């Protein structure tokens, strides 16, 4: 088992089956396609994947399905955070047993103002409960959503106790300088901002890459930015930023599912899990207009989007 590879990941959306449960086979196929389009990996069952709205049963079934489909262990970072540490242990064990030792773990987010000692105890219980040195934990800093930030001072404490098991952090705060501070706080600690708009600078300044919602829609463009050089790379980077800005005007999961519905011609992709709702018609029309202004051909979507 190895640490997750560096680069660009999509925080993957989760398709809904006709009975309202996660459609795991379709998620697996979708994840494979994103990697084929140029992403370095995927991060299922995170915020964009509505992870905390999914049944625990489904979250525990996902890793085995990904393994059966042959997705590499260093290309998938499963979200396994839960308010209950022992539930996080169970989901993380399912990942490790299927060959996926890289997991993205929110802090316990229901009880607010948790002290640093409490957060340390939570992650310690997770690591000790899983009970293998092969585990690689990526802390998940998303204070706007969880209301439970990851203190900078927590990381050296965890690294001192658990070494390489504390592998990195996803920073969804939107504060790039904060991401750089996390990247500098410890050695062998890969930080992934959530904004591909800073992809090239993030890599230049020591981050591990990005884990982003909007790369669901811009996988090939992200690969272009990484593969190009000079002005071509900067042009691709600007387009990545524009795509992200447009999509971020809308509820992310619903907007990205609407885009996939257009791409695939399958309206069932629009479905979300309660309490979210699908993108309203007027919002969908506004999203389409904004994407067309950017130039859909620039992001490989012009021939895939269905007509209104």
In short:
The chain is α/β, with parallel strands linked by helices.
Please, could you describe this protein's structure?
With 308 residues, the protein is of the alpha/beta class. It has a domain at 7-219: TIM Barrel (Alpha-Beta Barrel). The protein is built from twelve helices and eight strands. The chain has helices spanning 24-36, 56-68, 85-97, 116-130, 143-146, 154-162, 176-184, 199-204, 219-227, 230-247, 252-264, 281-294; strands at 7-10, 41-42, 78-79, 102-105, 136-141, 166-171, 190-193, 209-212. The protein has a five-stranded parallel sheet with strand order 3-4-5-6-7, covered by helices on one side. α9 (219-227) runs antiparallel to α10 and α10 runs antiparallel to α12 (281-294). 46% of the residues are buried.
Please give the structural blueprint.
Blueprint: E1 7-10, H1 24-36, E2 41-42, H2 56-68, E3 78-79, H3 85-97, E4 102-105, H4 116-130, E5 136-141, H5 143-146, H6 154-162, E6 166-171, H7 176-184, E7 190-193, H8 199-204, E8 209-212, H9 219-227, H10 230-247, H11 252-264, H12 281-294
